[in-house]
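To close the chapter, one final illustration. This time we ask the reader to focus less on the individual chains and more on the assembly as a whole: which components sit near each other, and how the overall shape emerges from the parts.
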Amino acid sequence: MIKIISMVMLFCASGFLGFQVANIYKDKQYFFVDLLNFTKNLKNEISFMKTDILSILKKYEYKSDFNKYLKEYQNLLKLKNYTKIEIDKILYSFSFLSDYEKNTINQMFFELGNIGYTEQLERLNFYENVYKDALERSRQKNDKMIPFCKKMGFLMGALICIVLI
Amino acid sequence: MLKDILPDFLIKPLSLLRYDDLCEIRLRLNRPTTVNYKNTYYFLGQAGLCNENDAIIATKETIQYVISRASNHSIYAVNDEIKEGFISVKNGIRIGLAGTVTMQNGSVLTIKNISSINIRIPHQVIGASLKISKFIFDDDGHVLNTLILGAPGVGKTTILRDLCMQISKKRKDLNILLLDERQEISACSDGIPQLNVGIFTDIISSGKKSINILNGIRSMSPNIIVADEIGNIDDLKAIEYAVNCGVSVIASLHSKDIIEFQKKNEFENLINNRAFKRIVVLSQTNGKGTIENIYDDYFRPVLGFV
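The assembled structure is written out below.
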């Protein structure tokens, strides 16, 4: 009886693990969805309202990990002095992003508010396209990886059960 | 307020000075920082006022820091002001900029490589316009169109601010429309004037004076329009329109004296039409806001003014 219960538990744990790994891929996709939306909002706020950056940051809330990034960036702006290194640090914990993606995002936030109106909008257009591509790649990868991770979780569970039998 | 826009190493020595006597802080790239304190220029060092060798040298980072903080980390948001060569900060502080001007189709696109900044700190001097206010009313109690002349830094803005307040105090039946393009006169923050410009004064901040005059006359039906630093053709056309609408105009203009003013071609129409009934000339002879003379529309000194 104990053996059966253990096997069921192991099967469930392995399946759960598969879902967790799949969620990492989802996190990245959601992060880019929010980042892209934020970039679009930013462009609108700057072109039509010329709203200052702190007011924009206060205005928008997101559900993904991107919200954490925004909050930390907002806190950084309130400090008297901050450097690009401090902006870079915010993304250290976002393990699902590649170094290239981290550098691009950091660069955008470092430039934000430090360049003139026309240049700022041009740069935001550039970043918007970069994020669109990144989101598309993330979606394509997720279409393959998420079902794969889930299946692998259950298969591993089943495998362990067979070995135990 | 200065602590919000200046780095700590400048705030510390500035805190040793009396804020009320501080008029300007000038940062020039790779050169010593200077301050205008009690109407005299001094070098600023770590221990306060100092000699040239001990002065704090302004770096590119210092200048960038001030601009970034002054624009609330949003340089794009103050692009229109930068084009005009300044950034307005809270409490009426104005930062003048000098650098490389980028032009497009004959107009300024932006100022790059900013190498000098001049932080001007406004001070309210209550009663500064009392000597003038006696002469700007006619026998029927109407406010006469008045032009205040003076070189930069002689106190034109201070006099205008005080005139708004004094007129509001004296006459409860006159609505004043203050066109505060650079937000120096009223130091408006979120629509609330930080400096006293009187209770009957409506304020239009930012924007072009020429447009604001036309809009303001239609929307606020003022009795008096007050504007600082007029000079371009559009401003003068709008002022002419205001005068023809029966609105009194009180304005200031950069001009050293009455002779220099008479030579200004763009004012030909207004001079020929004798639009300005009072022309006040300011100087710094006996300190800021010294009234050199008051002239009438024929450029004769006004009787009774000593």
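Chain A has a mean pLDDT of 89. Chain A has one domain: 29-145. With these observations in hand, you are ready for the problems at the end of the chapter.
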